[in-house]
Design goal:
This protein is α/β, with parallel strands linked by helices and about 325 residues long. It has helices spanning about 45-60, 75-80, 85-90, 100-105, 105-125, 130-140, 210-225, 240-265, 270-280, 285-300; strands at about 15-20, 25-35, 35-40, 65-70, 95, 150-155, 160, 165-170, 180-185, 185-190, 230-235, 310, 315. Bound molecules: zinc ion (2 copies).
Length: about 325
């Protein structure tokens, strides 16, 4: 149980859990109860999710029409999906980092093109076509949980006024290129950058970007420097010791790199997907993309070190 001290935010921040039967089971939406009302993330764009949000806000005495600003931590559909619907109810301004802006502002229009690029990327990671197609189908089906929204672009360090307070943007690329944490007073909203129960996927969740693991570790260190903050993630419960959590995530990625080098040390070239199969066992459905992308991100980071070299789409350690 979090103690009194670790729940100081509760007078000014309300957590609403939005069901998500597609991915992760549920998303956290946070209402900031300041002079102006703001939401951090929105959950998915289904009637059920909207109903849950609407009721929770009304019950707390804040009708959805009163929302003035919506801050999106990153471009994943479960985090911004409902923004357009809330915007049309309330006229709220929507904000997202500029690196994730296009995939949100033009989500619907660009979806087919983006998924085609994902398919090409998975083939380069060595995923067989027969395993790529079901992932793309699944992502196509999942596209119904979000729609394009008119949004403004944010930059690192920007301070967006909220009444007499401010929301500070801290750019933390890694999980996606435009991932940010938002700071409001001593509360830090981390989206998927920092999660309490598992390490976020790096590599597959913004599959067209490069060097994501390196960027992610740097972004973790940026947050590690912050003292006296309460950390509220995009899924699950409040994070009580973010520095220890960050240390364990960095350790986890170091161990994974060692495991990959060990697999490659027999001198046989392998694709990211082949390594993923050896690391994780069989992969099905969406995990094909997550597993291969995660290994790819580690290989990018390893290339040129520990004897790891790239041969076309394969890697070798010798
Ligand atoms: Zn995400
Ligand atoms: Zn998420």
């Amino acid at each position: 149980m979090p103690n009194q001290q670790s729940k100081r935010h509760e007078e000014r921040v309300l957590k609403i859990t939005i069901p998500n039967p597609y991915f992760e089971q549920s998303n956290n939406v946070y209402l900031i109860k300041d002079e102006e009302l703001a939401l951090i993330d929105t959950g998915i764009d289904t009637d059920e999710a909207f109903d849950v949000l609407n009721k929770a806000l009304a019950q707390a005495g804040f009708p959805i029409k009163g929302i003035k600003k919506i801050f999106i931590t990153h471009k994943h559909p479960d985090h911004f999906g409902m923004a357009s619907r809330i915007q049309s109810e309330s006229g709220a301004e929507v904000y997202i980092h500029r690196d994730d802006w296009e995939d949100v502002a033009r989500f619907t229009e660009r979806r087919d093109e983006v998924l085609e690029k994902y398919a090409q990327t998975m083939l380069r990671w060595g995923v067989p076509k027969g395993a790529v197609d079901p992932v793309i189908e699944l992502l196509k089906e999942g596209s119904v949980i979000a729609r394009s929204v008119k949004a403004q672009m944010l930059a690192d360090g920007q301070a967006v006024p909220l009444g007499r307070q401010k929301i500070i943007v801290i750019h933390t690329p890694g999980h996606t290129q435009g991932s940010v944490c938002f700071r409001y007073k001593n509360t830090l909203f981390t989206g998927d950058h920092l999660l309490p129960d598992y390490t976020p996927n790096i590599g597959a969740t913004d599959a067209l970007m490069s060097d994501m693991l390196k960027k992610y570790i740097q972004s973790l260190l940026k947050i590690r420097e912050l003292d006296g903050i309460e950390v509220l993630p995009g899924h699950g419960e409040q994070i009580s010791n973010h520095k220890a959590l960050i240390d364990s995530i960095i350790q986890h990625h170091e161990e994974r790199k060692r495991a990959i080098v060990k697999i490659l040390s027999d001198g046989i070239p392998r694709s990211a997907y082949q390594i993923a199969l050896e690391l994780f066992g069989s992969l099905d459905s969406y995990h094909v993309m997550l597993g291969a992308g995660e290994v790819h991100a580690h290989l990018e980071d390893l290339e040129g070190r520990c004897g790891v070299r790239r041969l076309g789409n394969n890697y070798i350690a010798a």
